[in-house]
Every structure is written in structure tokens, then in C-alpha cells.
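Bug report (template v2)

What were you trying to do?
Predict the complex of my protein with flavin-adenine dinucleotide.

What happened?
Run completed; filing so the output is reviewed.

Input:
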Amino acid sequence: MARQRILIIGGGMAGVSLGSELAVDHDVVLLEAESSLAVHSTGRSAALFLADYGPPPVRELTRRSEPEFARLSALPDVPPLLTPRGGLFTTWDEPSAAALTAAVASSPSMVAVTADRVRELCPVLRTDELAGCAFDADVRDIDVAALHGHYAGTLRRRGGRITTGARVVAADRVGAGWEVRTADGRTWHADALVNAAGAWGDQVAELCAGVGHRLSPRRRTVAIARSRVPIPAQWPVVADFAEAWYFKPESGALLLSPGDETEVPPGDVESDPLDVALVLERVNAATTLDLRSVRTSWAGLRTFAPDRAPVVGPHPEEPTLFSFVGQGGYGIQMAPALAGVGARLFRTGTLDDAVLAAAIDPGRARTALDR
Ligand SMILES: Cc1cc2nc3c(=O)[nH]c(=O)nc-3n(C[C@H](O)[C@H](O)[C@H](O)COP(=O)(O)OP(=O)(O)OC[C@H]3O[C@@H](n4cnc5c(N)ncnc54)[C@H](O)[C@@H]3O)c2cc1C
């Protein structure tokens, strides 16, 4: 039987990871609008692996990804994909301290720590006003470029093709398949489409099936601050547990974020100077760093479904359009498991884990909101 031709729309982590899985037994063609891959969310992340972050389906997919990260890291051409970082979570008021205590109780790796231990882990933190603090030794840094490069390389080695500079602008059902046009005037034919367009996921869903998934792209800012004191590379990521700021060492400087979630239309977003000023102010209030300026800053989009779980499976209105969107702020850390789950759903339409299948089913976001 001839291999099915699949067009994947989007060359970020979602598109290449699922594409590499599907290329085993399909003729995969990936179309990326930009002139290179991973220039949007995938290239702008904080590169963290946080097992106790996000809603239950995300935690489950992150947990399932861990052995896969280890397996991939053991391949001859792949560097270690996860490296120890550790996470120090701080709280500054009683409600946040109570939430942190509950998180510690339910986490296999998070432990409450004393002010003395906090000062050992990160001596610049002001501990006098801390309401509570916990350390998670399981937090890791992810080599995002190596993971993305591994998936893109595997997709190609398995016979798939990647075309950049190919923005999908029209898609029509023709016979049992699809005719797709890109902005450069080319026409592409396929048996099935995969929507891996990140922040543009609803635009692509509407283009192909007339209905989106109520995705909400949210801008998050990152800055690299100059510090007048040396920043030890082994510091953990230090975060306000309510996510008002976090920082971690980055090549001798500090990577900071104000944890912003400003809803914006999909696009090539830039950092807002007010958000950069805000994170400097917040980190200065919590530390003795006295940061005054940044070397550079950027912003990227974290795109969420209403319940913050990913949207994976056949589109409810158009089963030959497979949705692989809504990766939110977790699309790197859960990529290995999500790609496996996506490929299984693509091939068989079912998962052994019915709870997970229902939690990520593309039909549920609409139902939840229409109730
Ligand atoms: C500041 C920040 C920090 C983050 N930190 C973390 C973290 O620490 N850990 C973690 O796991 N996750 C993190 N994330 C989230 C993670 O980066 C995303 O979940 C993930 O990158 C999403 O991948 P994607 O492939 O869905 O989207 P993208 O990487 O944005 O890829 C989508 C691609 O689709 C293309 N496209 C769109 N429309 C079309 C079209 N019509 N035709 C062709 N191509 C199209 C776009 O050009 C784009 O390249 C962070 C995100 C941000 C912004």
C-alpha cells in the first residue's frame, strides 16, 4: 500500500517531533512559514524541565518524557538533553506559602528548606521576608536546540522533507485529500494535514476546517541582565512560587522573566520595556543583586487552550486535519511523550490511557466553554 502523504504545518518543536514519529510509515512533508525553523516559541523558551508544573495532563506527559529524554541522550549523536539545575521556589505571603506547602506534600521531589539552606543555595536572596521556601532537585535545563535538531534530523533520515519559507495560506478538500497553497504560489497535495502552527493554531484550524480551538497566545518576556556580582553557574533557577518572577544563571549573566501572560494576537512579538523594567524591580526587591540594566531581551508566545492542556487529535469538524497545538508553557519538556501520544492517536485514534486521551481531545475545549 502506498504511504499516506502528510503535510505538517509548522516547524517548531511540535511539528518536528510529531513529524519524526510519523515519518516511520508516512510520506511526511513539513511546511514552515519562516526562512528557518524554531524562530518562534521554540527558539525563545526558558529551556526548563519542571515535572511539577502545569495541569495534570501536562505533568503526566512531562513525567512520561523523562525516560525518553534519557534514551535520546544516550544516542551517539545527541548531547545530554537534560542537565541538573535545581529549583528554589519562594513565597512572600501566607496564601502563597500555604499553596507551596500543599505542592511540597504532593511532590515526590520538592522539599521545604530553611532560610539557612536558602542562603547556601542562592546567597543574594533576601530571606528576612520569606514566608516559605522549597527546593526541587529534579528541575533540569533542557538543550532545546539539540532536541529540536534531533527531531528534524530524524524526520529527514526517515525520508521526510522540510521546506522553509512556505506559509500555508489556503487549504481545500479535493477528493479524499487536500490541496494546500503556500504564499510563494506553490501547490501541495496530501492525504492528511497536521496543524502544528503554535500561536497560529487557530488561524490554521479556521483556514482548514472553519473552526478554531479557542487558543489564547500569551506573551512572555525574557531578559538577560548584567550583574555587578559574579553569577555562579550552579545557582538553581529561583522563582516566586506565584510566578511573578524567576531567574537563572545564563552564561555568566542572569536570565530573568516577570512571568507575564499578556494575551496578544499571533505574531513575531517583541518584549515591552515596561515588562523588562518590572522584572528588574521585582528581582531587586527579592534579592541584593541591584540589577540596573539588561544586555538583551525578547518575548515569545505561550499558547493555551482554556484548560491549559494540549489539543491533540483529529479536528472535531474535519477528521483529516490533525490538531497538535496548545502546548502552552510546557511544549519542550513534554515534547517526547506528546509526540509519541500524537503519533499513536494519528495512527489508531485511541490511547490505552482513556483519561489522558479525553484530557487532550480537541473536542473538549469547545464543549467546556459552550456549557
Ligand atoms: C518565554 C518562554 C519561555 C518558555 N519556557 C519554557 C520552558 O522552560 N519549558 C518548556 O517546556 N516550554 C517553555 N515554553 C513553551 C514552549 O516554548 C512552547 O510550548 C513550544 O515551543 C511550542 O512549540 P510549537 O512548535 O507548538 O510552536 P512554535 O515553536 O511557535 O512553532 C510553530 C511554527 O508554526 C509556524 N507557522 C505558523 N503558521 C504557519 C503557516 N500558516 N504555515 C506554515 N508555518 C506556520 C510558525 O512560523 C512557527 O515556526 C516557553 C515559551 C516562552 C515564549
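What did the reviewer find?
Confidence is low (pLDDT under 50) at residues 367-371. The domain at 87-137+217-304 is CATH 3.30.9.10 (D-Amino Acid Oxidase; Chain A, domain 2).
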